[in-house]
TrEMBL record:
Keyword Metal-binding: yes
Coiled coil: none
Domain Alcohol dehydrogenase-like N-terminal: 24-131
InterPro entries (alphabetical): ADH-like_C, ADH-like_N, ADH_Zn_CS, GroES-like_sf, NAD(P)-bd_dom_sf, Zn_alcohol_dh
Family: Belongs to the zinc-containing alcohol dehydrogenase family.
Protein name (Swiss-Prot/TrEMBL): Alcohol dehydrogenase GroES domain protein
Cofactor(s) the protein requires to work: Zn(2+)
Membrane in keyword set: no
Keywords from the UniProt entry: Metal-binding, Oxidoreductase, Zinc
Length: 333
C-alpha cells in the first residue's frame, strides 16, 4: 500500500510499504480525513520528542474499520470511528491514575508509530471511538484537537469554571478557537481573544468571541478570571501573567521550548492567590469530546480551511507553515 514517510533526514516521500499487521486487540482503518498541526511541522522540520523515524505522520483522524482483530468487542467492519492517538501502556502509575496522557511508555500514533497518512492504519481498538458519520469527515478528524481543548477547559474547572466568567484566550489558532467554542458552549460571560495576526480576527469573531484584539489593543487595566495561553509564545505568556485577576487561573496550553524561562513574581502569585496549571494533550477526554463534537460541529467546521490529497502531504505542510488557514486537513480520495 502507499504511505507518506518522513525520514530521519526529514525527507518527505510517498512510498510503498506492506499493509499493517492485524494484531489481537487492534483494528485496521481506512482513513477518510486527517488534520495536520504544529506537531507534524515539528516532525518534518527539527524533530518532535518521541518521534520514531522513519515515520508515517497523521494523528488527528477518522476512518472506516476494514478489519477487526482477535479479542475486539464493540467494533465491526464498516463502523465509522475517530481515533485517540495516545496509545498508553495501561499499567504504569499514570495509567492506573486514569491519566493515560502522562503514561511512562506513551506511543502516539503518527509520532512513535505509523499514523494515518497512508491507505490503511492499525490502531488499538480501545483507541477507536464510534462517531455518527453524519457530523462530517473533517469534523470527526477535529475531535482529537477538540479533546485537547476540552482538557484545557476542564483544567480550568470545566463548565463550572468558565460559566459566567470573563475569559481571555491568547492565540486564535486551532487550540485557542476550539477553547473559545467550548467556553461559549459552557456559558462564559465574555470571551476576548488576542492574536497579533489580524488575519485571524474575523474567524475568531465568527466562532463567537466578543472581542478579537492585537496584543497592543488590550487595555492595561483589564483583568480576567480565566486565561488560556494557547499561542506557545513568550510574549503571550508574559501578557497572560499581567492580566490575571486576583484569584484567577492561567492554563498553559501552548508548548514552549524545553529550556525556555520566563520571570514570574512569586510575591504576586502569593498576594493575588493566582493559580497556574498546565494542560498536556487530551488526557481522558476523548469520549467526552466525541459527544461534544455532536453539539459544536457547526462551529468547529468553520475552522477547517484548505484540504489536500494525502499524497500531497509535503505541499500541505508547506502551505500550512506559511498560511493563515486555521486547520489544514488531508483527504483520501
Ligand atoms: N496542550 C495541548 O494539548 C496542545 C495541543 C495542541 C497544540 N498545542 C500547542 O498550543 C499552541 C497553539 O497551537 P495551535 O495549533 O492553535 O497553533 P497555531 O499556530 O494554529 O496558533 C497559534 C496562534 O498564536 C498566535 N500568536 C503568536 N504570538 C502571539 C501572542 N504574543 N499573543 C497571542 N497570540 C499569539 C499566532 O498568530 C497564531 O494565530 C502551540 O504552542 C501548540 O504546540 C498544545
Ligand atoms: Zn495535532
Ligand atoms: Zn502507562
Amino acid at each position: 500500500m502507499r504511505a507518506v514517510r518522513i525520514g530521519l533526514d526529514r525527507l518527505i516521500e510517498v512510498v510503498d510499504v506492506s499493509e499493517p499487521r492485524l494484531d489481537s486487540g487492534h483494528v485496521i482503518l481506512r482513513p477518510v480525513a486527517c488534520g495536520i498541526c504544529g506537531t507534524d511541522l515539528h516532525i518534518c522540520q527539527h524533530g518532535f520528542p518521541g518521534t520514531q523515524y522513519p515515520v508515517t505522520p497523521g494523528h488527528e483522524f477518522a476512518g472506516h474499520v476494514v478489519s477487526v482483530g482477535k479479542d475486539v468487542t464493540g467494533l465491526k467492519e464498516g463502523d465509522f470511528v475517530a481515533v485517540n492517538p495516545n496509545v498508553s501502556c495501561g499499567h504504569c502509575e499514570w495509567c492506573l491514575e486514569n491519566k493515560p496522557h502522562l503514561c511512562n511508555a506513551l506511543t502516539p500514533i503518527g509520532v512513535g508509530c505509523a499514523g494515518a497518512a497512508a491507505e490503511l492504519v492499525a490502531v488499538p481498538a480501545k483507541n477507536a471511538f464510534q462517531v455518527r458519520e453524519s457530523i462530517g469527515h473533517g469534523e470527526a478528524a477535529l475531535i482529537e484537537p477538540l479533546a485537547c481543548a476540552l482538557h484545557a477547559v476542564e483544567s480550568a474547572g470545566g463548565a463550572n469554571g468558565v460559566k459566567d466568567r470573563r475569559i481571555l484566550v491568547l492565540g486564535a489558532g486551532t487550540m485557542g478557537l476550539l477553547i473559545t467554542i467550548i467556553c461559549r458552549h459552557f456559558g462564559a460571560a465574555e470571551i476576548t481573544v488576542v492574536d497579533p495576526n489580524p488575519g485571524k480576527h474575523a474567524m475568531a469573531l465568527s466562532v463567537g468571541v466578543d472581542r478579537a484584539l492585537t496584543p497592543g489593543q488590550l487595555g492595561d487595566g483589564e483583568r480576567f478570571e480565566v486565561i488560556f495561553e494557547a499561542a506557545g509564545a513568550i510574549p503571550a505568556l508574559r501578557q497572560a501573567l499581567r492580566h490575571i485577576r486576583k484569584t484567577g487561573l492561567l492554563v498553559q496550553v501552548g508548548v514552549h521550548e524545553v529550556a525556555t524561562k520566563v520571570d514570574v513574581l512569586p510575591f504576586t502569585i502569593y498576594d493575588h492567590e493566582l493559580r497556574i496549571v498546565g494542560s498536556n494533550s487530551l488526557a481522558n477526554q476523548f469520549p467526552a469530546a466525541v459527544d461534544l463534537m455532536h453539539d459544536v460541529a457547526g462551529q468547529a467546521a468553520k475552522l477547517i480551511g484548505d484540504t489536500y490529497s494525502v499524497w500531497d502531504f509535503k505541499t500541505a505542510v508547506q502551505a500550512m507553515a506559511g498560511g493563515t488557514a486555521i486547520k489544514t486537513q488531508l483527504r483520501f480520495d
